[in-house]
Amino acid sequence: MSLQAQTFLEKLTEGQTTVTEDFLLETYEEFKQKPLRINVDSNYKIKNFPFFNQDQTNKILRLRLEKQFESFNEFALKLELEEDFQEFLEPILTFQKRETQFFGTNFRSRISQEQPKNKGFKNDAFAGSELKSYNRFETVLNEKISIGFLLDKDAGEDSFQDFRSFYLSIENYPFVKKAVLGNYKFEHSQGLIWWGPYILTKLSSAPVLSGNRKARGISPYRSAGESNEFLGGASTFLPHDNFEITFLYSDVKRDATATDDGKVSSISVSGLHRTESEILKKDFLGEKMFGGNLTFRKANLEFGASFSQTDYSKEFDFEKSESLKLFGTNYTYDFENLSFSGETAFNQNGKNGTVNTLTLSSENFNTIWVYRRYEEGFENPHGLPFAESFLKAEEGFYWGNSVRFSTTKIHLFTDIFRSLEVSSSELLPQNGKEFSLEIEQKIHQKAKITTRLKSSFKERKITEEVAVGDFFRETEVSSETERTNLRLQFDFTPKPKIALRTRFEKLFWEVKRSGEKEDGILIYQDLKLDFHKRVSVNLRGIFFETDSFESRIYEYERDLPGVLRNVPLSGRGVRTYILTKIKLPYKTNLSFKFAKTFRTDLEEEKTGKDFVEFNESGEAEITRFPEKVIQGSGNGEFYGSSKELFSVQLDFEF
Questions:
Q1: If we measure between CA atoms, which residue out of 414, 420, 423, 494 comes closest to residue 454?
Q2: From residue 539, how far is each of 437, 500, 575 by CA, in Å?
Q3: Residue 414 has pLDDT above 80, yes or no
Q4: Angle of helix 72-79 relative to helix 54-66, nearest 10 degrees?
Q5: DSSP 3-state of 278
């Protein structure tokens, strides 16, 4: 991927916090395997392409009616695409003028290991080795059939196939739009009833895209994340030009913690099976889901109705339905550069949720309004709608804007929300608001400066001592907290194969009621070099200093292909990494990454205690052992002030 394309992708992924395959990276790779056919694919596919805005979609549909696009250069010129967006799009679009078959096989294998070892390895609490591995094989047999399987092992797990998934995907047969057998995900409408396990967070660099859901329907599950995937079968049929019917069935096991009487006390989504207690959680809870959707489409109007039922094999030891039924409707209406869309759903208890969006797009201005409201008791294990808190009762209004001038881009969003949960343990509904302003200024053909101000104000519970007569009693009270990030970033590309980035970031954190304050700072220098067409190297050095973990600063990193890493840094120290990618013959790519974090605020060794033992003669021998610094907690503890991570990945296509 070129420097410009990678920079654009970073804008879309920087807000994520996972360190596994991110859904956006996964989506991008899927389109590299099967590019969007601008001249051939249906209007529906063009409209749901996740990287086009409404204005760009309308232009494509209008222009291809007049004349088919001859090349990518013509396409980019007519749509007036920016340079970084052009390089991002070029690998995932094709301009063939008739349907042709795709064929190809790819294999990906990745291993990684951390040092020093965690406590769990040293005291044999973990069942397996410290090696983390990932293996994925996929074959596209033709335009209609593809198959794949995945094996994944986390550090500390015993089996190299602790998590495994497979799929058989069929599409574009008569009356069959798409069908998947095996592990799959389903994205529908605004995500109230069904959505995959990942979504975009509120992105400062892409505020309109953050709130604009573009559901892609049924697709194979290709991630190593071990939660919210389906296992069974799903199919979308086209019985008529204006109608689409989708059927879903899943029978899957979920990790859960059991009580003494065999009930479920909590559902685990970590996917970790290292210790005896974690292994006991594995596949403890059975989950069956079936449902479907009927959608009517005509011209610029879409309307649908959905039903879903989920049944669990165990009783719950907390307030959760063992059988959940959901009913919903969804709509989309496009009028020139305006787009209205929304979804409303309710369960068998009459509790409901709704999300409604209005998007306005033009060549230089894009804006979106999102209103959402989820009642208390509106639970859904498979939904992931736009929200501040996952599966929480809330009401909120989001407004995102992007404006482009000749050399300046301005991105702005604000989100105001309040909790609708009421319980005896909460004194007040928890309210909050977020604001972000980012200005990207091009100061030279090869240089730009980005400034960002992002603030969030949220209520949280704090413990406070309250006088009761002659005594003091600890009680929970609600207080607003403020977190503000200031960022200044300088990007310089002196040559097409050389990119430099310097970033300065300052964070302020405060609890209003108690007056507690913390701050943090992060500075890094990044250098990326592309050597010819076969070797690229990325070097980064980071200095950070924060008062505690509360004032941590997240640092998004480039990583192995398909991996997202957003590292929280706290304390005082330095972090460095080197990432190398090598293109070998026969469509083989090799990638390495070495990263090290060193905490300078921790002493390497402290004075230890004397340990006395007796030898065979009965004489006492005194040995002094240094008491090393301990980081982490529980089985995640490790000795020392530094942590290292080495990863290597092989990608092979034929």
A1: 414
A2: 29, 10, 11
A3: yes
A4: 120
A5: helix
Supply 187's token pair: 């994205």
Tabulate helix, strand, coil % of the chain (nearest 5).
10, 55, 35
User: With contact defined as beta carbons under 8 Å apart, do 343 and 315 qualify?
Assistant: no
* Residue pair 520/553 in contact by the 8 Å Cβ criterion: yes
The length of the chain is 654
Residue 400 and residue 384 in contact, taking contact as beta carbons nearer than 8 Å? no
Amino acid identity for residue 620 in this structure? A
Which of helix, strand or coil describes residue 591? strand
Check the CA dihedral 602-604-607-610 and report its sign. positive
Closest listed residue to residue 58, CA positions, set 312, 317, 366: 366
For 340-402, give the secondary structure using H, E and C: EEEEEEEECCCCEEEEEEEEEECCCEEEEEEEEEECCCCCCCCCCCCCCCCCCCEEEEEEEEE
Backbone angles phi, psi at 394, to 5 degrees: -160, 165
Mean predicted confidence (pLDDT) in 621-634: 64
* Nearest alpha-carbon partner for 451 in 436, 440, 435: 440
- Which token pair is 11? 């804008």
8 A C-beta contact, residue 287 and residue 309 = no
- Separation of first and last alpha carbons in the chain: 19
Using only C-alpha atoms, the chain has a radius of gyration, in whole angstroms, of: 26
pTM value is: 0.87
Residue 605's SS3 state is strand
pLDDT tens sequence across 515-533? 889 999 999 999 999 887 8
- Give the single-character DSSP code of 222: -
Question: Do strands 498-511 and 471-495 pair parallel, antiparallel, or not at all (unpaired)?
Answer: antiparallel
d(CA 424, CA 141): 58
Residue range 287-321, pLDDT digits in tens: 999 999 999 998 889 999 999 999 999 988 887 78
What gap in Å lies between CA 366 and CA 607, rounded to an integer?
A: 61
Write the burial class of residue 585 (CB in 10 Å: 0-12 exposed, 13-18 middle, 19+ buried).
Answer: exposed
Whether residue 111 contacts residue 135, with contact meaning beta carbons closer than 8 Å, is answered with: no
- Specify the 3-state DSSP secondary structure of 134: strand
- The verdict on whether omega for the bond into residue 50 sits within 30 degrees of 0, i.e. cis, is no
Q: How far apart are CA 117 and CA 332, in angstroms?
A: 52
Q: What is the pLDDT of residue 461?
A: 74
Contact present, 600 and 574 (Cβ < 8 Å): yes
Pull the structure tokens for residue 380: 């859904």
The answer to whether the Cα torsion of 507, 510, 515, 518 is positive or negative is negative
d(CA 622, CA 46): 76
Distance separating alpha carbons of residues 377 and 350, to the nearest angstrom: 9
Instruction: Give the tokens for residue 135.
Output: 């293996």
CB distance 352 to 301 below 8 Å: no
The count of other CB atoms within 10 Å of the CB of residue 167 is 20
Q: Which residues contact 75 (CB under 8 A, 6 or more apart)?
A: 38, 69, 81, 93, 95
